[in-house]
Amino acid sequence: MSWFTFVSLFIASFVFVKYANADDKAPYLYILGITQDAGYPQTGCYQKHCMPGWQNPLLRRGAVSLGLIDPQQNKKYMFEATPNFPSQLYDLEVEAPSDRYELAGIFLTHAHIGHYAGLMFLGHEAMGASKVPVYAMPRMKKYLQTNGPWSQLVKYKNIILSPLQDNKKVTLGRLEVTPLLVPHRDEFSETVGYVIKGKKKSALFIPDINKWQEWQTDIRELVKSVDYALIDAAFYSDGEIPGRDMSKIPHPFVTESMSLLDELSEKQRKKVWFIHMNHTNPLLNLNSEESKLVQAKGYNIAVEGIRLSL
Question: Could you tell me which residues come within 8 angstroms of residue 244 by beta carbon, excluding any fewer than 6 positions away?
C-alpha cells in the first residue's frame, strides 16, 4: 500500500470517529485544514512528493483552519480564512448546516497568505456576504481597512471588523477566545495564537511562531494549562529543504518541539497536535518513520475531520 493510499484511508476512517458532533450540546473544534499556507501540493512543486497530489485531487490538503461549533447557541466560527476557504466553508457547512448554525465570526492570526487571503471569497465577486464579523488585532485590522481589495470588503460591509487585544478574552456566549501575541515575521500585522475555552475543556492554537525560545511564555507550561495544544509543525527537521539555509525560516522544527516537550508526562504529551505542515514535511505521510516516531512518543498529528470536544 502506498503512503498516499494509507493517508486517504486513514483520513476516511475519521469520518466514523466522533470525539464530538453537532448533535451534542458541548461545543467543539473541527479541523478543516492542516498544511502550511500554500497547501499540499504546493504551487510550482513537481517533485516526487508533490506529484501524487497533482495527479489525484483526493490527496490534496488545505491550509490550516479550524471550525468552532456551538450546538447550544447554534453558532459556528472559523479560525483563519485560507486560500482554501470555499471548500473549507463547505466542509463546515456539511458539519454544521447554515439552516441551523449562523456563521458568527472568523478569527485571524496574521497577514500571511494562508491565514487571511480567503477573505476575498466573502466579497461581491464571490458570495457577497453581509456583515460577517472578522476578529483581528490592531495592525491586522488597520491593514484590512487601508489596503485593497480587503478595504472593499469593509466598505461594502461584507465583513465587520471586530478588534482584539493581546491577552484580552472575547466572550462568545459560553465560549471564550483569548489572543496571545507570538513572535513571527510581522511584515504587515502582528501574529497571535489563541486559547479557546469551552464548557469543560480548552485548546491552544498556534499555527505560526518563531523558535520557542524567542517567546517569553514557556510552551511546556501552556500545554499543561489546556486540554489540546495545536502547534506549529511547519518543518520536521533541519535539512528538509535541500540547498536552503533553514535558519532563515525560524519555525520550531518538530524535532525541536519534541525535545522541549519530551520531559512532559505521557498524559501531557497526548494533548499535543502537530499542525501547519509544509508540503515537504514527512508527517504528511502518516506511514513514515517520522510519523511513527511522533506517535510512539505520545503526540498526535492533525488530519482534517477530527473533532475535539470543548
Answer: none
User: How much is the CA Rg of the chain, to the nearest whole Å?
Assistant: 18
Q: Which distant-in-sequence residues (6+ apart) come within 8 Å of 275 by Cβ?
A: 31, 34, 64, 207, 230, 231, 232, 233, 302
Count: domains in the chain: 1
Cell 496574521 sits on residue: 110
Helix (H, G, I), strand (E, B) or coil at 195: strand
Helix (H, G, I), strand (E, B) or coil at 7: helix
Let me know how many helices (H) and strands (E) the chain has, helices first.
Answer: 10, 14
Whether residue 179 contacts residue 137, with contact meaning beta carbons closer than 8 Å, is answered with: yes
How many whole angstroms separate alpha carbon 71 and alpha carbon 100? Answer: 9
Q: Closest Cα partner for 192 from 225, 162, 165, 160?
A: 165
**Are 25 and 72 a contacting pair, CB within 8 Å?**
yes
Segments forming the whole domain that contains residue 31: 3-309
Q: Do residues 225 and 197 lie in contact, with contact meaning Cβ atoms separated by under 8 Å?
A: no
Q: Which residues of 212-222 are buried (b: 16+ CB within 10 A; e: fewer)?
A: beebeeebeeb
Rounded Cα distance between 248 and 33, Å, is 25
At residue 166, what is the residue type? D
Looking at residue 288, its amino acid is S
Rounded Cα–Cα distance for residues 241 and 239 (Å): 5
C-beta separation of 192 from 181 below 8 A: yes
Bridge partners for 40 per DSSP? 61
- Give CA–CA dist 172/154, Å, rounded: 22
Tell me the per-residue pLDDT of 77-136, one tens digit each, with 9 for 90 and over: 999 999 999 999 999 999 999 999 999 999 999 999 999 999 999 999 999 999 999 999
What's the predicted TM-score (pTM) here? Answer: 0.92
Q: What is the pLDDT of residues 182-232, one digit of tens each?
A: 999 999 999 999 999 998 999 999 999 999 999 999 999 999 999 999 999
CATH number, domain with residue 65: 3.60.15.10
